[in-house]
Amino acid sequence: MNHFLNILRYAKPYKKQALGHIISNVFFALFGALSFVALIPMLDILFQKRETVITKPIYTGLSSLKDYYKDYLAYQVHLYAEDDPQKALLLVIGLIISLFLLKNVFGYLANYFMVFLRNGVVRDLRNAVYSKTVELPLSYFSEQKKGDIMARVTNDVSTLQYSMLPVLELIAREPLSIIFTLIAMLIISAKLTLFVFIFIPISGIIISRIGKSLKRKSDRVQTEQGTILSILEETLTGLRIIKGFNAQSKFTNKFKEASQRFYHFSNKLLNRQNLASPTSEILGIIVISILLWYGGQLVLVDKSLDGASFIAYMGLAYNIMVPAKAISRGLYNIKQGNAAAERIQEIIDTPNPLKDVPGAEEKLSFDSEIEFKDISFKYDKEYVLKDFSLTIPKGKTVALVGQSGSGKSTIANLITRFYDVNEGSIQIDGIDIRKLTTASLRQQLGIVTQDAILFNESIENNLKLGNEKATEGDIIKALEIANAMEFVSVLPEGIKTNIGDSGNKLSGGQKQRLSIARAVLKNPPIMVLDEATSALDTESERLVQIALENMMKNRTSIVIAHRLSTIQNADEILVLNKGEIVERGKHKDLIAKKGIYKKLVDMQSFD
């Protein structure tokens, strides 16, 4: 129930719709109860019950409310019908039709307001989950399956939409229907109504016991949905490798196993859920049977209740079963949706360690230097950087080289604040980057990674990712600096050309040059190049290297290099080994030392 209350928080912006829904439901419930009470005078006429009511009745208090209501209706019928039963019958039928019409008009209005409230909550909830997903640090996703996160944003929100959120409609309507109906029933017969008061808690206890395991079963179903999406995402991403290694059957079997588990858990969940309706139906018919027997005694033996009132009462008693069943079904749905709400809330409530500190400073320019001061960092248990210190003056290019796992890419992750250091600090112009707003810090940085990550958009939209205000002329200039205009100009629609999913319509070199053009168009003072040429062939590398040299002119650059031919002109080269600087200097000086750097160069055998 706590998770249901958390979901209700998202209904706050829709107070007007909620108020309209509640008011409409008040009248829906009121006219619903009155429409059954209005049957009494009609039944009196049909049963030819003759009571002479010539004078207008006088209200004497709640104890005689039922008799006052009946006498008042009879008085009005007498005035209109003038003792003509047919006229009287038409009048009462018109009254009943009017009451049912009003009931349904307000029922429609209640649903009308609820549409905006319910769909608004779903939209805001989905947006909140997505926003939090984008906001969370990269470390969170290294521990999660992509498919499971996708399942939470899509399937779990949809589960709430069709299980828990419909309960919002019941919160006002069904309790009000029960309350107004019970008031009418109490007025007609207090003795009979005692049976209803006994029935409601008993049925509630039975239904809650049946529904206890729904949350656990629903949780299993949603977990398997996440597993299925994870396998599907992995399959689509790695389809070339799967086919190349003839691993289709392995992945097919893996998918079938997850699908079988989903089938098994879904059957258990739905079969338990299907118990709700027959259980409440059986309980309802039992209480109706008891009421028929006891009410019959009051009419035939005790003579304290007339036949017309008893029939109207039975109509009200049956009418109360409809909202009671809806509430019991709603309780089931809350239990089922609780698992989905918990999984969604888990993402929303996940703390973000990289969140801006209160009063974080906006960094609008880069003026003097970047300084890594005695930083140490670990992803898990072992440190990948230990007491690392480095100062990069503005306008200088520093290259980081070393074997895989030496901590090169970690420097890029830390300067961009994808992770925070465990010890020490990283400062830009003497300000700790943890005291800057993350958005303003990253505005000072341009990033080009080994994997050129592009989106299923036009070239223009891909490049404008970091600079929405860029003109077509700015885009063409950036493409020229990135040495990319030569292939973009021959594309069918030029910069308007869609490059497909992940840019798969282009070659690796072309994608990387677009990635460089994107960084150029952003025009940041600091460039971070994380092995930007390591995945390319020699010809593509040459073209990309020219583009990189063009881009780095008059900029401060941190270059993480695997291919050492790309960093010979760096102002300083740092050789890393197990998270520590073991050599530093210019290319020629390091070659002359004949140390680790010289061995790395020789291994790559370049002139």
Automatic annotation (TrEMBL):
Pfam families, per database record: ABC_membrane, ABC_tran
Protein name: ABC transporter ATP-binding protein
Topology versus the membrane: Multi-pass membrane protein
Keywords tagged on the record: ATP-binding, Membrane, Nucleotide-binding, Transmembrane, Transmembrane helix
Subcellular location: Cell membrane
Ranges that cross the membrane: 22-47, 88-110, 178-207
Domain ABC transmembrane type-1: 22-336
Keyword Manganese: no
Entry-linked CDD domains: ABC_6TM_MsbA_like
Organism for this UniProt entry: Gaetbulibacter aestuarii
Highest taxon of the lineage: Bacteria
GO molecular function terms noted in the UniProt entry: ATP binding
All residue ranges annotated as the ABC transporter domain in the record: 370-603
